[in-house]
Structures are given as structure tokens and as C-alpha cells.
Amino acid sequence: MLSGTHGCHGIPELINKRPVSDRRSAVVPEEASSHSDLIHTLIQFTSLEKRRLTCKFVKKKSHKMSVSTTHGLPFLPGNSFRDTTKSAFHRPQTLSYKNGYALPLRPTAGIGQDPLLSENILQNEMKQLSSQIPTLTYGTPTRSPPRDFIPAFVAYDKKVLRFYGYYKEEVLHSPNEHFYVQPVVIYYYLEDDSICVMKPKLKNTNEKEIKQIKRHRLPKNQPGEHYHWKDFNLAMDMIVYNTVYRITNCDPFTQEFMESQGIVLNDPEQIPGDPHSSRQTQPQLPDISSTNYDRFKQFLTMDRKVLRFFAVWDDSDSLYGEKLEVIVHYYLVDDSVEIRIVQESNSGRDTVPVLLHRQKIPKDIKEVCQPFPSCVLEVSPQDVQEFYSPKNFRVGEELRLMGKRFLLYDCDEFTRKYYEQHHPDIPLKPLPVQQKAQEDCKKVIPPYNGFGSLEDSLQNCLSLIPKPPKKDLLKLLENDHKVLRYAAKLDSQNPNDEGRHFILSYYLSNDMISIFERSRRNFGILGGKFLEKTRIPKPSSTVENPEYYGPADFAIGATVEVFRHRFVLTDADQYVLTYLESMAEQEQIPEKTLSSLRQALGQSKALDPNHTSLNLPDPAAGKMAFSPLSLS
């Protein structure tokens, strides 16, 4: 007798191994036309087939124990009958080469040269192997293809259940409240059954969303079980790490998922309040009855239309007060008022253009608010009975705004036309305003203080950031390296100054003078630079209008006063005479100066044939040669 396992795996294979004659005799006869006859015939066919298969299997088992595992029995211990006389177990060759290319071959025999099972099966039987075994129904049912296996982390990816709840946080050392109600959001991730608890951001607070419990599987009890989505429901408590979370509600996706799984959700609850939140709630403002005035129409018709009044602000009542000209703007779009100060140049005032920012100015306030100090009174629209309107602005009359007096003396052309069209009963009476006579302020230059040059010090009086005085560039380029040198001696009452000889150099490029003292052996006074290059004013000139020394003033025998030191010119260079003679007409050199130079240079040559003058080279050479003067 065959077991159930042997019969389950062996019968389909043995059916295919039956002879053709046996398979043909097992066909259901065509005479069974009725339903009952068909069922009876199938039952007989089934019992007959079982009996034949059993006999055939026993016969093959007794035939030299040569049944292999390929004949239907599973390859398990006790189910295989190996032929001990078989010695060939090699597999047939299935690969060959042709023209250098590898070609696969179809095997002609099995392992150990056993015949292939496919050669003993007919084509119709091969088709029946891939089809379903007929059942006791009319026709052959179609088999649906097996469904692909989808893991949980793919099926439930990005699917999260969201529950809303709260927990009570204890407050210590507070006489006003003993607990806070903290709302939370519980996220359940279906892909790995992890849970995350977040504390949402509250309204009108700067707090961000806080993660109360990071994402992981939350323990349910001491044995180690974890929370599952089947454990969740509305209006229930969930204890996590000794904190009781009350679940009150969920989102629509969570509700649909739970109901699809057969879980009946409880009714949602509201998050209760706490003493702290009840004190923070603001009282509702009283309802304000709507008026029939159309603000939207006012905006469409009066947008960018402004009434402009010219006024005078009389602030003479206050300390150091005065009258200032202002411009009052009245915006028709929202009945707001703005006051601007007319800026005057050199008025000495700070540049504050706006005296009153644009706002609606109340005219009449309820009597309840009158005793309250107006400086700290916050007037609401409900406390104001009337605001200032265009009817209150009358040209030629005084207007009081925010405690200040303003005299409206004129308006612009648009304002005048607006009053003629909309308020013809209000007369416009422009008033003449006494304009202040503009005084011509003369610039007074302070006296020279002696520091620096006069031109450089004058720049501090002309501008806040002084600039260097301008130079005559053309004169600098033409007279570069041109120097007039004279020999001089010091006119002093001090006997120690006798015998001191100096060289006075006049620079034609910038009209500056430098003095150099010649050194003498065993004289007791060191020579060197006596005066740096500078412009020397004449003693007869004033500090405001100085007159400086020029080439026309340097005659032989003339006295030059340099900062209270008197120098007498005794000799000059030949270049001085040559230059002055060439420039006599342009520079207006007096004849006295030229004659003194000719006489001094001619006498010095006649008296001393070895006389050496200060020979200056050609100015184009760019160098000066200092040769000693022969001084008596």
C-alpha cells in the first residue's frame, strides 16, 4: 500500500508512463450524457486508475530495484532505489564548436545514457502536463496567476497613522495652576511599527515643533511586547515611559485604515483646557454695527486725491518758539492728515520733514475718556465720536490739531476746485503772509593766526573739508629750475654778526625765497641753511592783503626784511641781470634795479679781474651750479 506522500508525487508521473493502450482505455465513454451518469463514470475511472497505478508501481519495484528518482518519487532517504550494477553517471555533451563559435546542443540521452523522459511522452501528454487536471465541473476552469510577494516595508512605505492627543504636565511651586495640558501628535509608521510623538507648534508663540519621543518601537508592558496599530483607538489612554497620553482624535486616512481592518473607532474627544490657557484667552471685542457708508467706493473714487493747505504753525507760546511754515495734507481716500515742515536753507534746524505722520485725527471723544490723561490715552475707534473732515479745514481761519495752532492762509488749485464742487458754502479767504526778508550774509574771513601759509589757512574758512590751494601749473612748467641768486649780508647792531655772508635764492616757479649762510674757517658760527623755502611778505603789507617780495624789489644795496632780520644785497649773479633784462617789459622791472645790477656787476669785474659770479647754467639743462661769490 502506498503512503499519501508517495501517491501524491508518484501518480501524475505514473499516469504519463502508462502505455498508449492503457491511456486510451481510460478515456471517459461518450454514452454518459446525463449528469448522474457522468459522475458515476468518473468515479469508476478514478478507482480503476488507482488500481492500475498501484499494480504497475509494485511490478516496477520488483524488477531488479531499478526505479530512479526521476520517475516521480521525491529524492529523499528511503524513496530512492539505486541500481548497483550501473557504473556510468556522466552527463551528455551539450556544447560543440563550429567554425570557431560555441554552439549549444540538445542532449540526446540522460545521465548515464538513460533515455530522456520527454522522448517517451507524446505531444498531447506534454500539453496535459502544463494544464490543470480536470475536475468535476463543466469545462476546464482558468487558473489565475499567483500573486507576487510584496514585503511589508514596500506595501506600507510612507503610510503613517496620525493620532491627536494630549498629556498633563505637572507644575510645581505655582499657586495659580497645578498642571499644563500639552497637546501632542502621535505618528505610527506601518512599515516597521515604530512610533514617534511630536509636540506641535502652538499659535502666537515662537516655539518650534518639538520631538517628544523619537521614532522607535514603544514598549507596551513588562514582558517586552510592543504597541501595534491594533492597540490604538480613540478616547483611550496609552502609557509610554510612565506618561499617560490620551488619544482624542485622528486624521481621515487613519480613520479609513482602521475601519478597513475591522476596528470600530470610538467617538472623538476635545482637548480639555487648563488654568494657564484659560487666563491667556483674550476677551472678545464687542460687535460693532456696520454703517451704510461705502468705504470701497471711497477708495475707488478718492484714491491719490489729496487736499493741500499752506499754513503757519504758531509756536511762540513755548520757550524759544517761533512761527514756522508747514504744509497740511488731507488724504480723501481714508480721511487721514499729514503735516510737513517747509525746509529752509541755512535755518539751523534739523532736517525733520514730517511734523505729524499720516493718521486720522479725532475731533470729539466720548466724555468717559476725557478725565483720563490724553498723553497716555489709547483712543479706539469706538471712543471717537467724530474725526476731522474737509469741512473743518477753512482757508483764512485758525485750526487746532493735536494741541497745536495752525493758520491756514492758502491752498493749491486742486483744493480750491474741490471746495467749489463739493462744499460751495465754505468760503476760501487767502491771507497774505509776511515773508521774511532775506539777509545777504557776507562771508567774514577771520584774521590770519600765523600758522601755515596764508593760502593754506584760508581754505579752512572756505569749506568744511579744506582743499589744497591751487597752483599755477603753467608758471611751474615754464620757470622750473630757474633761480635768481644774490649775495647779502646781515644788517645788525650785534657786533658778532659782522662778517657773516649769505646767499639769497629766489625761485621763479613759486616765488619762494631761501637763505643759505656761507661757512668761514675759524669764524665761530656754523654755516648752512638759514631759511627754508617760503614766501616772504613785505613789511608794509597787511596780513589780510599781503604783498610778497619779487625780482623787481631786489636791487643791489636794497634792504630785505625777513621775519625781523634785515639783509642788505651786495652782489648778484650774471644770470640775474640777463633774466631781468629779457623780462623787463613783461614783469615791469624798474630801471633803478637794472642799473644797480649793471653797476655792481661792472664794478666788481673792473676792481677784481678774478671775480667769480654765481653763474647759473641754462634753465633747460635742469641743474644749478653753486660757485662762490667774491664778497668784500
From TrEMBL:
SMART domains to which the protein is assigned, alphabetical: DM10
Organism encoding this protein: Astyanax mexicanus (Blind cave fish)
Residues covered by the DM10 domain: 157-262, 303-423, 480-584
GO molecular function: alpha-tubulin binding
Superkingdom of the organism of origin: Eukaryota
Swiss-Prot/TrEMBL keywords: Cell projection, Cytoplasm, Cytoskeleton, Repeat
Cell location: Cytoplasm, Cytoskeleton, Cilium axoneme
Bias (Polar residues): 278-289
Name of this chain's protein: EF-hand domain (C-terminal) containing 1
GO biological process: cilium-dependent cell motility; mitotic cytokinesis; mitotic spindle organization
Gene Ontology terms: cellular component: axoneme; mitotic spindle
Region (Disordered): 1-22, 268-289
InterPro entries named among the record's database cross-references: DM10_dom, EFHC1/EFHC2/EFHB
Nuclease among keywords: no
